[in-house]
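Risk register update: the risk of archive-format incompatibility is retired. Evidence:
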Amino acid sequence: MPDVRTLSDRELTVGYFERQLLHRKQELTAAAAVSRLAALQAQYSPSPHLALWARLPGFGQPELEAALRDGTVVKSTLMRGTLHLVPGADYGHLAAAWRRRWLTELRGRHRDTGLDEAALEASLRSFAVVPRSAEELREHTALASGGRVRAEDLLHYPRALLPLVHVAPSGHWRAHGKPRMVLWDGELPPEPAATARLVRRYLAGYGPASRADVAHFGGLRLGQVDPALAELDRQGGLVRHRAEDGRELLDLPGAPPPSDPDRELPVRFLPKWDAALLSHADRTRMLPAAIHRQVYRAVNGTLLASYLVDGLVAGVWEHRCTRGAAVLTLTPLLPHARRPELEREGERLLAFLEPGAESRTVAFAS
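Archived output:
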């Protein structure tokens, strides 16, 4: 039995910063970066673009939009019932893994309704071969089910029964409005292979992580996660570490250690709902517990746009552009001495957000 190494909190923070590509040293395409990160949360359309801007030198919005059009990146409702951008090559596995959990919940709510789920699925499959709006899917589900699907689940059921992907321009920079969805052209893989792929991708981008972290990211029960972990162990083994608090942390063989845990990390700006801050049950490797409630609003599930100082969230930011004047306002939540660096990085952010602005100002809230 190999020795189990205890990783310090600082090692976890530095290693995570690097796995999340926040060192901004790798020249990757947008599609390759999404693959490395497993998934980007996408309920707010600019967030994935800002997430890649924070990580990739020279990133521009048209590159991600092109990947969405050619299918190398796909937008869909997946883990935790949340919109994500994911690699097209992984979509079937991620959809199959989440579908199992979602259908279990929906079936429990409709156990005594007399719903013919097979007939509903067949009807929806024929209906969704062309792009459909959310309202069209709701109306068809109500009709095809004979009114047996609860009103609040009229969109959940088609999303759970079928792999539905968003059609461009959904996912494009600042694209709002009513998205259309279409049936994905592919076969969903079986278990435990589907969840094993999800876990492998998760550990590559977010590891080392606990079983609870894996379950949290996928929105899955441990009863689904554990067979996938066993499958990965069978395929080549998982590396086991310990956190300072004694939790077992799992990782992939050959995963890189942090290059220098003692080095100072550069400041970075993260968008609303950045997956780096949402993908662990224990978020403290990047989001200090002392300010967690000021950054994450549990009542409505909102994660504010934030900035990192030395790898940890130290404040939040917002911006506005009025009559050609763009202003980025930073609200510090923890003390630091990196204001000049934040101002320089903030100017870069404003140039990305508002390239046509006549003036750009970085301000600090008192």
